[in-house]
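#onboarding

Welcome to the new folks! Below is a worked example of what a typical request in this channel looks like: someone posts a single protein sequence, and someone else replies with the predicted structure as tokens. Don't worry about understanding the tokens yet, we'll cover that in week two.

Example request:
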Amino acid sequence: MLKRELTKWDLTALGVNQVLGGAVFLMPALVAAQLGNWSIGAVASVGLLAMCVALCFAEAGSRFDGTGGAALYVHSAFGRFAGFEVGWMLWVVRTTSWASVVNGLADSLGYYWPALRAGADRTALITTLILVLMAINVRGIKQSAWVVNALTIGKLVPLTLFILLGLPHVAWGSLRPAEALMSHALSAPTLYLIFAYGGYEVVPVPAGETRDPKRAVPFAMIMTILIAGLVMTLAQVVAVGTLPNLAASRTPLADAAMLFIGASGALLMTVGATVSTTGQNMGSALSGSRNLYGLAEQGDLPPIFARLHPTYRTPVVAIIVTSLLTLVLALSGSFASMATVSAVARLVVYVGTAAAVLSLRRKGPAGFTIPGGPIVPVVALAVCVAILAGASAVQLRSGVIALAIGGALFAAAKAGRTGK
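Example response:
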């Protein structure tokens, strides 16, 4: 049996760590390039949309205390196959995301140490980081939580300083939009922001290792979006109000900090971005392996993936397989094409969870119930459909392929169970 050692604040740190990743240090310029000063309202508005989806996770999570997150909710609401596909897509998101992010960390460090941009040094860095995180995860969930908590604090400190020191320098008059917002210009930046807020779906995955998960998961889901939304919106305010020609900056927070803090501020933002990326790596390592374990625990993958370490009581096989596959993807470069799966994969998870909330209500009241009846789950479903409408043909094709692979694995596991 897994050890229940995580608290509600550990889960909150995991969620904040995944949402406030490397994107928060780049987002202000990317969104401002398309929306100008309207970007501030866009960041806040998409945060509210993310809260609708997070509330669905909170209500569904208050019904379960096992490992797996959305896969458990959809399994209970719509059956074994649907639950497996959602759990499978969660795992696909985590492995491809981890492979992509670890390469991003190597690129960031390569700015200061060019040898890390390619060749043996880059390979050694990526391999060492993944194997170290794998070892930490094998040693125990509490040790993993300590690392995630430390890295979350490590990214929140520079972001908080950026906001607190930057707000007095904001030219508030410059925040007023100079031109009308055209509706056709909303699609691309809104899609980017919705995915920038993504990552909170990992919060309920390790519920089987959490104390009182039926209370801890709803708390952590809501706190994650509140904290991340506040930080992202205020960072956008400071960036727009202090950095001229924000849209042209490749490192907007570092460039803005250089203006109102100095060189030490720019360095602080660079360190913060590095810590943030490392934190995302750790969060993906922790949650991705638990996705795989949860599928095996339900009997939808070979039981070897549910094997626990005899001493540490961690899902050792799932951790090793997830880590080694990520390493292969990261070193081969094939992660770039596979990363397009993440868009549709998240949609599958969000749609499944929102729909599961509506279905599970027929089974009785939950520990936490979203106010307003069906309004919030329906809005969440509508948001997911809107994202799907903006997905590219490549993303849709990649998502279908990932679902098909998952279906084949499910069929093979079912045949194995039947043949016994």
